[in-house]
Amino acid sequence: MRITCPICGPRDRREFYYQGAAVAIERPAPDAGAEVWDDYLHNRDNPAGETRDLWYHESGCAAWIVVTRDTNTHEVMGAELADDAKAERP
Amino acid sequence: MIELTARTPFDGLLPIEAGALRLSEAAPARMTSLAPYRGRDKALSEALKAAHGMAFPAPNRATGREGARAVWFGQRMALLIGPEPDAGLTEFAALTDQSDAWAVARLEGEGAAEALARLAPLDLREGAFKRGHTARTELGHMHASLTRISGESWRIMVFRAFARTLAHEMREAMQSVAARAGV
């Protein structure tokens, strides 16, 4: 499996560290309420299909990236810097 | 009073020779990481050019020459190798002295890329990884910085604490390449 780092280019999967679903960049407001915070902290989807994960380019440039991939086909559709992904949020 | 003796990271570990390959310790040099402040990347590159004669390197590239080199070192970071950093750079970037933090080796000889390819998951052939190219990558489970200085000459950097592991891993890789060279 190869992941195309937005900075370094295509690299072997072993250079990366997997963190989990890319919800960490969608931190709710402090006063969003207990239910929203509970959801953010504990509840994760387990999609069959497109999923977005946070990966850390640990042995490479040390950037956090959001990788979009398909859990059915194992296709990696793309990757962007977590910084950019966060900036794009409404 | 105890007399302490300064030791280089590879003291007693290098050089290693195998066939045409030779791994030796690079001469100790001043190394400073440059991390530009947000929005100051261009200004830092200009200041670097004026003070030390090289631009801030693009990702996966090194600029400068022997004695005064800037090696790309990660996301928005470069390592200035050689000169004492000009004080003017501090206006545009965070500077950190890294001189004693890294073990630096030089690998030379025919088949150098083949030896490194046994440890790093990269295409290191000359067509893909040319002189002046660099990479932060994995080298036998260690976080490393690899730079092709010239055709068959490489600069290898790992955290100082990994000096012995690097010497061991490289010896194995070099011997494997050398053993097959005659076949």
UniProtKB/TrEMBL annotation, chain A:
Q: Which GO terms describe its molecular function?
A: sarcosine oxidase activity
What parts of the sequence cross the membrane?
A: none
Any one GO biological process: tetrahydrofolate metabolic process
Task: Point out the signal peptide segment.
Answer: none
The protein's matches in Pfam families, at most eight in alphabetical order, are given as:
SoxD (PF04267)
Protein name, as recorded: Sarcosine oxidase subunit delta
Which species is the source of this protein?
Answer: Roseovarius spongiae
From TrEMBL, chain B:
InterPro entries xrefs? TrmE/GcvT-like
Q: What is this protein called?
A: Sarcosine oxidase subunit gamma
